[in-house]
Every structure is written in structure tokens, then in C-alpha cells.
Write a structure and sequence with these properties.
Layout (H helix, E strand, L loop, with lengths): L1 E6 L4 H14 L2 E5 L9 H7 L8 E4 L2 H7 L3 E5 L5 E2 L12 E5 L8 H5 L5 E3 L11 H15 L21
Length: 169
């Protein structure tokens, strides 16, 4: 199973967008407190539109609580990583995969990154900005993992209009 982990997310719009992405891909979302908003927040619901009921998510009191309840292969997305996210082979990982993203203002704490240096990944960007938006980053890395695994259980056609929508009759 593929999992997205948000360490102390601060911005409800980002979390709402990520919840929608998780609902559309069937991956589980893990939210580590403190959250910078309430999950009842109208902004979270608006960004998730009508899809939040399809989002499988769990909230944890802190990072230790999260670790005590989850096992697998952990990858930490950080601007301090020295390997590109696309350098890893996720296809052959037989354990649950956890893609960990830090809070918008400060990222993942250095103490966590230090003990996981070989799994600190970076999305390559130029020197003009510090980092990409976290909801964009989640999509980039998640879809690379899904691509490598052959997009399991995902549709390559519109389920409402069908496979033949673009074919002239």
C-alpha cells in the first residue's frame, strides 16, 4: 500500500488538495498533529470538494504515535535531500511505502532527516525558489510511485463518459 504522510501540516488548502488526490488514487493519508487548522474547516472541505468521504485518512497525536502504528519503507521529501525522488525503484518494494512531507514553513525536523539520510529525497528545482508547494510535491512524487507500480487499480479512461468518448461515430 502507498501512503502519504503530512508532518504537522499548516495550510488547510494544501491538505484539502492532498485529500482529494488521495481519494482519487486510493492511497491512505496520515496527518501528524499539531495541525494548523481544524479538519472541520470549510476551506479543507472546499478544496476536497465532494470527495472527502472517499479519502482514507488517520490523525496521530505526534510523530512517535505515527511510528508506533505504521511499518514499511519510509521516504522523506526534503529540499536537503541529495537524491532525486525518481532515482529510487519503488516497483520492487514489497512493504508499505510511506512518502513523508513536512510542514509548509519548516519542513521535516532535522532530527528525523538525520536518522534517515539514505531515504531523504529531493524534487530537483533551480535556485530561484526554496521549494515547491507541498500539494504539488505530493502529486509529483506519488504519481512517480504509481507509474512505476503500473497505476494499480486506477482507470486510464473517464468512468463517466467511457472509453469511447473521443471516438467519432
Amino acid at each position: 500500500m502507498i501512503n502519504i504522510v503530512l508532518y504537522e501540516p499548516e495550510i488547510p488548502q494544501n491538505t484539502g488538495n492532498i485529500m482529494r488526490t488521495c481519494a482519487g488514487t486510493g492511497v491512505k493519508l496520515h496527518l501528524i498533529k499539531p495541525l494548523g487548522f481544524s479538519l472541520d474547516d470549510k476551506v479543507v472541505k472546499r478544496c476536497g470538494v465532494n470527495y472527502l468521504e472517499h479519502c482514507n485518512y488517520e490523525v496521530y497525536e505526534n510523530y512517535d504515535d505515527f511510528l508506533s502504528k505504521n511499518e514499511g519503507e519510509f521516504y522523506f521529501l526534503t529540499r536537503y535531500g541529495t537524491s532525486a525522488y525518481s532515482d529510487f525503484n519503488y516497483k520492487d518494494v514489497d512493504k508499505d511505502i510511506y512518502l513523508v512531507f513536512g510542514k509548509e514553513s519548516t519542513g521535516i525536523p532535522k532530527e528525523i532527516l538525520d536518522s534517515n539520510r539514505n531515504k531523504c529525497l529531493r524534487i530537483p528545482i533551480n535556485e530561484n525558489i526554496r521549494a515547491l508547494n507541498v500539494s504539488n510535491s505530493v502529486c509529483i512524487v506519488l504519481f512517480e510511485v504509481l507509474r512505476q507500480k503500473g497505476f494499480p487499480d486506477l482507470l486510464c479512461f473517464d468512468p463517466f463518459k467511457g472509453k469511447n468518448y473521443l471516438i467519432d461515430e
